[in-house]
Write a structure and sequence with these properties.
There is one protein chain. This protein has 15 helices and eleven strands. With 397 residues, the chain is α/β, with parallel strands linked by helices. The protein folds into two domains: 127 residues, Aspartate Aminotransferase, domain 1 (Alpha-Beta Complex), CATH 3.90.1150; 234 residues, Aspartate Aminotransferase, domain 2 (3-Layer(aba) Sandwich). Helix 2 packs across helix 11, helix 3 crosses helix 11 and helix 14 packs across helix 15. Bound molecules: (2S)-2-hydroxybutanedioic acid.
């Protein structure tokens, strides 16, 4: 038979946790797996700004015809402004363009196929560790995938190791950097670190690809864009993948963009023609709804303010959960050991727990997290921090 030789691959380690958690009947369970924000009620809410925009769309939308290869034009403009700043000189010089993609993951895949097609022979360098899907997306597109050190076995940022390796990267290769809220570790570069990375990128003529999936979840919407804007101002060329999954809460609506910064307006048109071609072969045209929602919000000052307040509330809640967990671990003599949870940024924390400890947390306490020890802090129930701390203390004993 045709399919006889086909074996089974393991399920996705992150998405698989969603299923395992849902099947667990323990009412005291904790979901620290997939990167999804939960509010004080344990729900992943639809943002008010999104609901209002959706109501407007239901009333005003007149057609479901295809949107073009680059997607919703107002969305593209809104995202460029959000990421680069409305006063960016790149926007004034027409050197920047956004192509709407199905989520940030779609933007990554588009970048992968674009690099494979238009920059053949270029390898890509990923942080070690990184989001596991980075590894498979670029490999699937046929790129040679290599790594630079990021967080070592001591669970600390290894900036010197990172810079030393970047200094050896072959000229022209692509370096994937996380703009903020590094996934999976939560350790971010300081401004000074970023400046040092920029110098190497410049001197070795590397092409940076900045993955920007968590704008607003680290230090604020503007603050989190600092490194992206530094690179965009300093370099003639840059790729940025932007996601609306987290900051607009549009997870299932698959809304994102690949932003290209080119040396001049003419070159941008060349590149965009290639991106439209690649995208056509991947998904033809992007889904409309999420981008229409984002365009509606970003195009209306009142909705935009409401949305920015909601993002800030999510950010502050995550920051409080971080300090709350460190505090709850204190009485167990673990405050110092897990102090890094308070320093890390965004949804994720590389806790430093071993795969065996993670397994015991799941088996003995129904606490679900990725086997690497990555915990989604945004999934913690604030009313049960003590219970979580007790469980962690038990597996650390
Ligand atoms: C995560 O890392 O948990 C999120 O980015 C969700 C996903 O698709 O893996």
């Amino acid at each position: 038979m045709h399919f006889d030789a086909i074996g089974r691959v393991p399920g996705d380690p992150i998405l698989g946790l969603m299923e395992a958690y849902a099947l667990d009947s323990n009412p005291r369970k904790f979901d620290l797996g997939v990167g999804v924000y939960k509010d004080a009620q344990g729900l992943t809410p639809i943002l008010q700004a999104v609901k209002l925009a959706e109501q407007r769309l239901v009333e005003q939308q007149t057609t479901k015809t295809y949107i073009g290869g680059h997607g919703n034009v107002a969305f593209g403009k809104g995202i460029n402004d959000l990421v680069l700043g409305a006063d960016s000189k790149l926007i004034a010089e027409q050197r920047v363009g956004a192509t709407q993609t199905p989520g940030g993951t779609g933007a990554l895949r588009l970048s992968a196929d674009f690099i494979a097609r238009c920059l053949p022979g270029r390898g890509i360098w990923l942080s070690n560790p990184t989001w596991p899907i980075h590894e498979t997306i670029y490999a699937a597109a046929g790129l040679k995938v290599s790594h630079y050190p990021y967080v070592g076995s001591d669970n600390r940022l290894d900036i010197e190791g990172m810079l030393a390796t970047l200094n050896q990267v072959p000229k022209g290769d692509v370096v994937l950097l996380h703009a903020c809220c590094h996934n999976p570790t939560g350790f971010d570069l300081s401004h000074d670190d970023w400046r040092r990375v920029l110098e190497i990128v410049r001197s070795r003529e590397l092409l940076p690809l900045i993955d920007f999936a968590y704008q607003g979840f680290g230090d604020g919407l503007e603050q989190d864009a600092w490194a992206v804007r530094l690179f965009a101002e300093a370099l003639p060329e840059l790729l940025i993948t932007s996601s609306c999954s987290k900051n607009f809460g549009l997870y299932c609506d698959r809304t994102g963009a690949l932003i290209v910064c080119a040396a001049d307006a003419e070159k941008l048109l060349d590149i965009r023609s290639q991106l439209a071609f690649v995208a056509r072969n991947l998904w033809s045209t992007p889904p409309d709804h999420g981008a229409a929602v984002v365009a509606t919000i970003l195009g209306d000052p009142e909705l935009k303010n409401l949305w920015a307040d909601e993002v800030e509330a999510m950010r502050l809640r995550i920051a409080q959960l971080r300090s709350g967990l460190v505090e709850a671990l204190g009485p167990h003599g673990l405050g110092e050991r897990f102090a890094h949870i308070g320093v890390q940024r965004g949804m994720f924390s590389y806790t430093g727990l071993t795969p065996t400890q993670v397994q015991r947390l799941r088996e003995n306490h129904s606490v679900y997290m990725v086997s690497s020890g990555r915990a989604n802090v945004a999934g913690i129930d604030a009313t049960r921090l003590d219970l979580l701390a007790e469980a962690i203390a038990e597996v650390c004993a």
